[in-house]
Amino acid sequence: MILLKNARIVDGSAPAPSDPVSVLVEDGTIREVGPAVASASAEVIDLGGRTLMPGLIDAHVHVVACNANLGINAALPDAIVAHRAAKIMHGMLMRGFTTVRDVGGATHALRMARDEGLFDGPRLNISGKALSQTGGHTDFRGRYDDRPQPHWRLGAMGRLCDGVPEIRRAAREEIKNGADFIKIMANGGVASPTDPIHFLGFSREELRAVVEEAEDAGTYVSAHLYTDVAIARAIECGVHSLEHCNLIEPATARAAAAAGCYAVPTLVTYEALANEGAAMGFPPDSVGKIETVRGAGMRSLEIIKAAGLTMAFGTDLLAEMHRHQSEEFVIRGRVLPAQEVIASATFVAAKLLRMEGRIGAVAPGAFADLVVVDGNPLADLALLTRQGAHMPAIMLGGRFVKNTL
Prior knowledge:
The protein is α/β, with parallel strands linked by helices. The chain has helices spanning 70-74, 78-94, 108-115, 164-176, 204-216, 228-236, 250-258, 268-277, 284-287, 290-294, 297-307, 327-333, 338-344, 347-352, and strands at residues 2-9, 21-26, 29-34, 43-46, 51-54, 56-61, 97-102, 123-126, 130-132, 158-160, 182-185, 221-227, 241-247, 262-264, 310-311, 370-373, 393-396, 399-403. Strands 1, 2, 3, 4, 5, 16, 17 and 18 form an 8-stranded mixed sheet that branches.
């Protein structure tokens, strides 16, 4: 049992830190929060007025993306990918991210390894393998390769399926294999070789079929989307989580808000790819697509905010570029209030993951996933960057994974 005293809570729900409170942690969860909480048997740690945040949530990651060239990544031996993924996830945890939503690649077996304590990493919410049509995003075979694409490898981001029966089967298999939700590639992408950004992935019939499969399983569909046409079509077909959304227009954003959708912009990855992608082996054809979506990113935040469309925090980084994960806070802070940016990585993301009250909150009954910060992130979002340099303590499930207090 641990009692954290004199903590000022910042969780995105208020424009200023709370008055000093104490937080009692027991058996991996938060038992009590308040100004008068006490315990005779607990280990007492006085935070001295430091900021206490719920563990951060990144709602768009690929923890198995250890190579910037995703075609090469898909061919790596599983053992190599697993060990590299463990390293990537540990880095995320040390940046204060205690939960991540993997939107293509991670498997239930990798989650089991993490949950068994074989390595320290964030909690994993997974889609399994993302679903793509032939020639779509996650088809990395190139124009002269028609060999079957093995989707069972850990390094593979996705699997190919064409037609309503195939997409239904693929969705059912991913759910059977442990997916928490279904991810589809409903637009062209930067990383894949044969699909320009404007390409529409899957027919309306296929989109409606996969949404029905997800709903039948009690979950939802997340879709890779850039163009306004693709986003509008996905909303029409019942897609719930709209990833990227760089080229969204106001009317479509309002329609998404009315439908109760979530948007998950991922702006930092375009900066990282533009600056470092080529040097890290990102294919030339893919490098050429970056500017198509990069320039519209900041405007998309303004459009999404004006429409009242709920925004969760996401990054979508690859390989060594994962180290830029926390810079997404600063990028969004150029357009959005710091409170909203923090909320996107706390209780808003928790609702998207359907784990509200368990993560993204400093409240009784929540997992004791907590981050201590020197300074006030509401006044300076950069305090959340620099690989956790301003985070003297990080707790995961009631256990300190970092403690330099």
